[in-house]
From TrEMBL:
Domain of life, per lineage: Bacteria
Pfam name, any one: PAS_7
Domain PAS stretches: 155-189, 397-437
Protein name in UniProt: Diguanylate cyclase
Length: 529
């Protein structure tokens, strides 16, 4: 959020009241002697071979109050160089050519100067504007004043170039100072025509003022621009003594993100509202953060209870008390099961079928979500399971009826693979195609039948018939087993291009009737015709 810029602003501004604070520093840095009216009489020091040979009265007085070393020339030039950084270089150049020069500067106490002149072997240094040019304290204090002035310029530049709008209010709530960013906002707002007037227009209502050491509570505020667009800001206010300093941080990105998130959540909520699957999402701390209406319908949990953001443990325990979860008599085992459930959901491996005491069946799955969240999906599969059970019962009944038929029957699908066979078929041929790992094709079945019967042209006809897609009619023929039993082989087309092949043992009377009346396969009949 934009409020994160606040520590930087505080460090840059050093609190608030920048102008007053720096002026106070500047006034403290310059001692009273430097702020008094400047001496009209200069301090003149005359040297020969850098040895002091004469002084003016003011210079003599300065010498009498200072604890100096014997090298007065060096001390004087060294301390004056603090005020005039170019003094030493100018002096070194001027001594060779005996060229006089003067240096000037302007301090908070007034103008100061140092003049260097030459007279044959004599060198004179005249200091004007400094009460005690040899004093170590006055020079150090002057350094402090210059540093404070430099700091003032840095702080002024920092405040003016800051992208954060700032303004200060007095004890009466009146604006008495603003920075450039604030003025720019005024010019670009509906109050732009009053930007050059003072007091400058107020753009924002102040937020609660935080005392020194407290954390400010930002207040959201909007500003309408001349273009009609709206900008959003977060206002933070800090107070000290009887004034307060206020910051307006750009919150457009934050507001846009919040609106996008709100729109996204509304879309999700509307989508989840129509899902028949119950949805419960728990955050990293395992508190419920999102649920849909289907969850309430499936679990019978009250919406106000779910809206209170229960924990995952409370949620499951409430389901247990409502008998909406498989009952576990051992409470310790129940607690252990919850821990396993949570861990499995985090890994994305949780999936169980809950059979409830009321006969309903739920499928429950757990899935991991970003940032440590987990989601549980609850589906009511009672109808699905009932249909599956009913279908299984019908299949078992059909198989039982199929097995009760005395005719040995095998059903071949459109691909020519055995899809069904009854008990009579298994007993006759000694193998159960349904228990084989590999699929049994019509070719595999014919090979097995040929091994246990006398040679017969029926098998070739049967092979051709199984791949025939049109003009299929039922036909039959006689085959003889290796043990001498005669079998009637019946071949009949079924819907979906499936084929029934049945074998029935023929008695003597039937054999006498069947053999001369054996039905010729359709393809062979066409060939003979």
């Amino acid at each position: 959020m934009s409020i994160a810029l606040l520590p930087m602003a505080l460090v840059l501004l050093g609190g608030f009241g920048i102008g007053g604070l720096v002026l106070w520093l500047f006034s403290q840095a310059v001692p009273p002697t430097a702020r008094q009216v400047q001496y009209s009489e200069p301090h003149v020091f005359t040297f020969e071979n850098r040895e002091l040979v004469a002084t003016s009265p003011a210079a003599k007085q300065a010498l009498s109050v200072e604890d100096l070393d014997e090298d007065i020339f060096h001390q004087l030039i060294s301390r004056l160089s603090t005020l005039f950084p170019a003094l030493q270089d100018r002096l070194d150049n001027a001594e060779q050519l005996k060229i006089p020069f003067t240096l000037h500067d302007l301090t908070s106490g007034g103008p100061i100067s140092v003049a260097v002149t030459f007279d044959d072997r004599l060198l004179s240094v005249a200091v004007t504007g400094i009460a005690a040019p040899l004093s170590r304290k006055i020079l150090v204090d002057h350094d402090r004043a210059k540093a404070a002035n430099a700091e003032l310029q840095v702080l002024r530049g920092t405040v003016e170039t800051s992208p954060v709008a700032m303004w200060r209010e007095d004890a009466g709530g009146n604006i008495d100072w603003v920075n450039k960013a604030y003025r720019d906002l005024v010019e670009d707002s509906e109050e732009g025509k009053n930007a050059a007037k003072w007091p400058i227009p107020r753009l924002f209502d102040s937020s609660p003022v935080a005392c020194p050491g407290e954390q400010a509570v930002p207040k959201r505020s909007k500003l309408t621009k001349l273009s009609g667009d709206t900008d959003w800001f977060e206002i933070a206010s800090y107070g000290r003594d009887e004034s307060s300093l206020h910051y307006a941080f750009d919150a457009n990105a934050t507001v846009k993100a919040e609106n996008s998130l709100r729109s996204y959540m509304q879309t999700l909520t509307q989508t989840f509202a129509y899902l028949p699957t119950g949805l419960a999402i728990f955050d990293k701390s395992r508190q419920l953060v999102l649920f849909n209406p289907a969850l309430m319908e499936l679990t019978s949990l009250r919406p106000e209870w779910l809206s209170a953001r229960p924990t995952l443990y409370d949620f499951l325990n409430q389901l247990r008390e409502s008998r909406m979860i498989p009952e576990r008599k051992d409470f310790c085992d129940w607690r252990k099961k919850i821990a396993q459930l949570e861990q499995s959901a985090q890994d994305g491996t949780y999936g169980e079928t809950w059979t409830l005491p009321n006969g309903q069946i739920y499928r429950v799955t757990g899935r991991p979500h970003p940032e440590g969240a987990i989601a549980f999906l609850i589906e009511n599969i009672t109808a699905e399971m009932s249909l599956t059970r009913k279908f299984r019962q019908e299949l078992e009944l059909s198989q039982s009826l199929f097995d009760s038929i005395p005719e040995a029957i095998a059903i071949f699908g459109p691909e020519g693979v055995v899809t069904m066979a009854n008990a009579a078929y298994t007993a006759l041929w000694g193998s159960d195609p349904m228990s084989e790992v590999a699929q049994i094709s019509v070719v595999d079945a014919i090979k097995q039948w040929q091994e246990k019967t006398m040679p017969s042209p029926i098998w070739g006809d049967l092979r051709d018939f199984s791949v025939q897609m049109s003009e299929r009619v039922e036909w039959s023929g006689m085959v003889t087993l290796n043990d001498g039993r005669a079998m009637i082989c019946r071949v009949a087309p079924l819907p979906g291009n499936t084929t029934l092949v049945g074998f029935t043992e023929a008695d003597a009377q039937v054999r006498e009737t069947i053999v001369p009346m054996a039905v010729v396969p359709p393809n062979r009949a066409r060939m003979s015709g």
